[in-house]
Amino acid sequence: MEESLDIFTNLAKDLLKDEKINPVAEHIPSSKLYDRLDLSLHQDPIDDEKFLASLKDLVFTTPRTATNAFFNQLFGGRNEKAVLGDLLAVLLNNSMYTYKAAGPMIGVEKVIIRKVCDMVGWDENADGTIAPGGSMTNLMSMIMGRDYFDNKTPHQGVNKKLTVYTSLDSHYSIPKNAAFSGIGRENVRLIPTNKFGEMDVTALEQQIQKDKADGFHPVLVNATAGTTVLGAFDDIENISQICKENSIWLHVDGAYCGSVLFSAKYKHLIKGVDKVDSFSFNAHKMIGTPLSCSLIVVKDKSYLHESFSNDASYLYQTDHDEFNLGKTSLQCGRRNDALKFWTLWKSVGTKGLEEIVDRQFELADTARDYVRNHPDYKLYSYDDSISICFNYKGIPARDICTKLYEHSKLLVGYGSFREDEFIRLVTINAQNENKDILNFFKTLELFVKENQTLFKKDVVQ
Ligand SMILES: *Cc1c(COP(=O)(O)O)cnc(C)c1O
User: Fold this and answer.
1) What integer pLDDT is reported at residue 315 of this predicted model?
2) Order of strands across the sheet with 188-191?
3) Of 24, 117, 253, 415, which sits 20 to 30 A from 107 (CA to CA)?
4) DSSP strand E in 28-82: where?
5) pLDDT band at residue 362 under the 50/70/90 scheme
6) CA distances (Å), origin 452, targets 179, 184, 268, 406
7) How remote is the CA of residue 431 from the centroid of ligand 1, in Å?
8) Pocket test for ligand 1, best of 65, 73, 74 (most atoms within 8 A of CB)
């Protein structure tokens, strides 16, 4: 093992050094992948030197998500204390279903969940769990909503016409989860949004009443805290009123921006979160832990038990259920995703997490100001969002993003809202500084200028 640890340390050091000089890895087109890298598997072992060379080649050509040139998705950066925790989780290799198998690590997860419930404003009756990603915590919320409507469903299956509600701009996991949970994709009502990308609450109410009149049973409203493209926040307070009147489970999908919970300055964006039934957020997005770390907390823990616990005499042999976390989780064997969040939180304090969140909004302000003040740009996003959506010189966003990628300059993606398609710069890497954001624009501008022919059709001047 020691030898492998040395290999790891050396590889890691080389990578960190190279990332500083080359923030974007060599681009390998997928059509050339198996020619460029030796990924093949054989009957016989290979010698250490060849193995090491293959490994290094692989590591060095893998997209670099921790550098100041990665703005492609809703994660980025590398938090050293969180990485430390995750490395230890791999080394220790516990499974989080029982106290017998994970010991004090159960306490680590419980302490995090407890603290988050406190911050939401819930009492000891609240609880939660960690699942592999926001799609999965959203699935858990849908299952709980379904079973909250009728607690016979986990036993007898779905035998009524159920409906769920989410905005047109919400995450695609909602229809997918409707397929998994027996509710059906066709029974997802996509509620229109206003120009900010926020759910139209009046339309929600009307759709619920219409469905009820038509013999459907609404079981879940999914509100989004940070929509995937614009980063918009649905009006939780007003939506919760409607859910209460109609006895519908309300979940807040805060996978992207639910972590504003940690910020005194921005938590108003999820005002009313204490009135919902469940709330999820991805610590691997705004908080910056390694993938994946998605928490879901539930106001009344009995629903978590009702939907997810199953007896298993071969598994639950000692200790109280409260320490056997498998009783409330989606999986059986479960990775320790709590430790990386705990090592970070323990070391920087809640204040440090707040700074991480606030920094992203500061970087977003820098980016928005830049776009607003430069006439070659057109801005599509609004304040209080860390997704800065814009177009440059009228060039189609997908062309710019693809060429920047193919030329190993920047990794950034594009998105669309209604008829507009635009570049989406996400300022989620809290290790970035204002100069990194300004450098992003400089790099883009220089690239377009020096590669006029690539955009010949597009660039007018
Ligand atoms: C990212 C995201 C998800 C999905 O989370 P994964 O961890 O990628 O499964 C769900 N909802 C929203 C709003 C997201 O931004």
Assistant:
1) 75
2) 127-131, 294-298, 278-282, 249-254, 217-224, 162-167, 188-191
3) 253
4) 70-71
5) very high
6) 46, 48, 45, 15
7) 21
8) 74
Q: How many CB atoms lie within 10 A of CB 17?
A: 10
Distance from the CA of 171 to the center of ligand 1, in angstroms?
7
- For 337-350, what is each residue's pLDDT tens digit? 999 999 999 999 99
Selection from 440, 451, 427 nearest residue 374 by Cα: 440
pTM: predicted TM-score of the whole model, two decimal places = 0.96
Structure tokens at 140: 């858990």
Residue matched to tokens 């022919």: 453
Q: Is 173 in the pocket of ligand 1 (CB under 6 A)?
A: yes
Cα(116) to ligand 1 centroid in Å equals 19
Residue pLDDT, tens place only, 113-171: 999 999 999 999 999 999 999 999 999 999 999 999 999 999 999 999 999 999 999 99
- Whether the pLDDT of residue 455 is over 80: the answer is yes
Nearest CA among 374, 290, 260 for reference residue 81: 290
- Using a 10 angstrom Cβ sphere, with 0-12 exposed, 13-18 middle and 19 or more buried, the burial of residue 125 is exposed
What is the rounded radius of gyration, in angstroms, for the C-alpha atoms of the chain?
23
Contact 425, 388 (CB under 8 A): yes
Q: Whose CA is nearest to atom 7 of ligand 1?
A: 133
Q: Alpha carbon of 409 to those of 31, 374, 377, 445, 451: distances in Å?
A: 20, 21, 19, 11, 12
Nearest CA-CA partner of 78 in 23, 137, 6:
23
pLDDT, one tens digit per residue, over 16-52 is: 999 999 999 999 999 999 999 999 999 999 999 999 9
Q: Is 137 in the pocket of ligand 1 (CB under 6 A)?
A: no
Q: Which of 234, 274, 238, 240 is nearest to 254 (CA)?
A: 234
